[in-house]
Specification:
5% of the residues lie in helices and 68% in strands. It is mostly beta strands and 432 residues long. It is globular. Residues 1-22, 45-54 and 368-374 have low confidence and may be disordered.
């Protein structure tokens, strides 16, 4: 019913937008179908009554097909208010979904912009033998002020998140009522090579079925950007979060500090060659950490590389990727990883191709119990090969084909942990 009402609204908007003279008003429809396949292969123990008969290579393939319909529309309402509508529906053998997003935007005076963006997402998913029914409503309101010299910007965001679910998903995903607010200040003088942003926000979440999960989460964010000589640039994005429970609870699950920092630098070495470096740091610190589930850890990733801009809109990036996970109290979770990564991309005439193969080795630390052969560790070191492929290309007759695929293979020191996975999705749509 929601999908039909949205499409009827789209037809009305289409006729109205067609009568307007502004080039920014439009209505576009898409009809088509999609299909995806997911498969994981792994070893598991086999039994004859209560007798272990050995290990067997098993798999869990899942196939889904569906018809899809989408509407994009934009136009102008009263008093110069602009609207943007996105409605997408999916109906298939495993998934039923309706997604609606409306954006209303107005400029009541110079330097001030008001935006209201409600989203409604309804779905029933029966993949992998489950039966999950979910309903989510997420409204957002935003006020933005810009100074006369456009050097300063203040942004206030207020929103909510109402989520309800049923079926098997209620065992792992709780109903929730949430509210959030963010305040952001950005400073970017025209004569300066520096840009900076500061932000503070808070989320309050209440769970009707489990008041022990009620919590408040506060956020602090910092962004710095600088232009480098020769057309290069450097950036730092950092955020720290503090979550505390509303009610007294013995669990430390919602009582922790977390943070993430991402740094990047790009240096132009030639007209078609740039050197790049990205570093990310992420970690959790619990108020009362344990050694099983809620343990402290820090993850560090560094990716140096070179990017070549080739002829015919081709781009190629290659370089190593280094990754470390530090867990002071849990030796079996610590690892070091090194891999080689290649990213090839082409954007031409509205088509987009991307291919990213990678291969590497992950080395886990061995605990004292493993070294003494008392018991095996949860993880074993392994060699992995993986790749991702994405394409979005136009075909004759106002049609588009989108393909997404990924594959991964792991060869462990402990052969019983060998595993592989495969996923691909094909989406074919015609525009009207």
């Amino acid at each position: 019913m929601t999908l039909g009402a949205a499409l009827a609204l789209g037809l009305a908007i289409s006729s109205r937008a067609g009568a307007q003279a502004t080039d920014s008003s439009f209505a576009r429809f898409e009809l088509g179908g999609s299909s995806d396949v997911t498969n994981e292969r792994f070893y598991e123990d086999t039994f004859d009554d209560t007798t272990l008969t050995g290990r067997r290579l098993s798999s869990s393939p899942e196939y889904r097909t569906a018809g899809v319909a989408a509407l994009d529309a934009a136009g102008q309402l009263l008093l110069g208010t602009r609207y943007r509508l996105r409605q997408e529906g999916t109906a298939g053998d495993r998934l039923l979904r309706s997604y609606t997003r409306v954006e209303l935007r107005g400029d009541p005076r110079d330097g001030m912009r008001l935006t209201l963006t409600p989203e409604l997402d309804m779905r029933r998913d029966r993949s992998f033998g489950d039966d999950r029914r979910e309903l989510r409503f997420r409204p957002d309101g935003r006020v933005r002020w810009t100074s006369l010299d456009h050097a300063d910007l203040w942004d206030v965001l207020v929103g909510g998140d109402w989520f309800r679910n049923g079926g098997t998903s209620q065992l792992v995903t709780l109903d929730r009522n949430a509210g959030r607010a963010w305040l952001r200040w950005a400073h970017a003088p025209l004569e300066s090579s520096w840009e900076s942003e500061l932000g503070y926000g808070a989320d309050a979440r209440a769970f009707p079925d489990s008041i022990h999960r009620d919590h408040v989460e506060q956020h602090g964010a910092l962004t710095l950007r600088r232009l480098l000589p020769g057309g290069g640039q450097a950036a730092l994005d950092a955020q720290i979060d503090r979550r505390t429970p509303v009610h007294s609870t013995p669990s430390t699950r919602d009582h922790f500090w977390s943070g993430r920092a991402d740094g990047s630098a790009i240096v132009r070495m030639h007209d078609a060659l740039t050197g790049e470096l990205s570093v990310s740091l992420e970690g959790y610190r619990y108020d009362d950490a344990d050694t099983s589930v809620y343990f402290d850890y820090t993850q560090l990733v560094a990716e140096p590389g070179f990017r070549w801009q080739l002829a015919r809109d081709w781009g190629l990036r290659a370089g190593p990727r280094f990754e470390w996970l530090f867990a002071p109290r849990v030796p079996s979770e610590r690892y070091r990883q090194v891999s080689a990564v290649i990213e090839a991309e082409r954007m031409h005439g509205g088509d987009w191709w991307s291919f990213s193969p990678a291969a590497g080795w992950r080395q886990y630390d061995r605990s004292s119990s493993t070294l003494s052969l008392a018991e095996p560790d949860l993880h074993s070191s392994y060699l992995f090969i993986e790749g991702e492929l994405f394409s979005d290309m136009g075909l004759p007759g106002r049609t588009r084909l989108r393909f997404t695929g990924s594959a991964r293979y792991e060869n462990h020191e402990d052969p019983s942990q060998n595993a592989s996975s495969l996923y691909f999705s094909v989406d074919f749509r015609r525009g009207f």
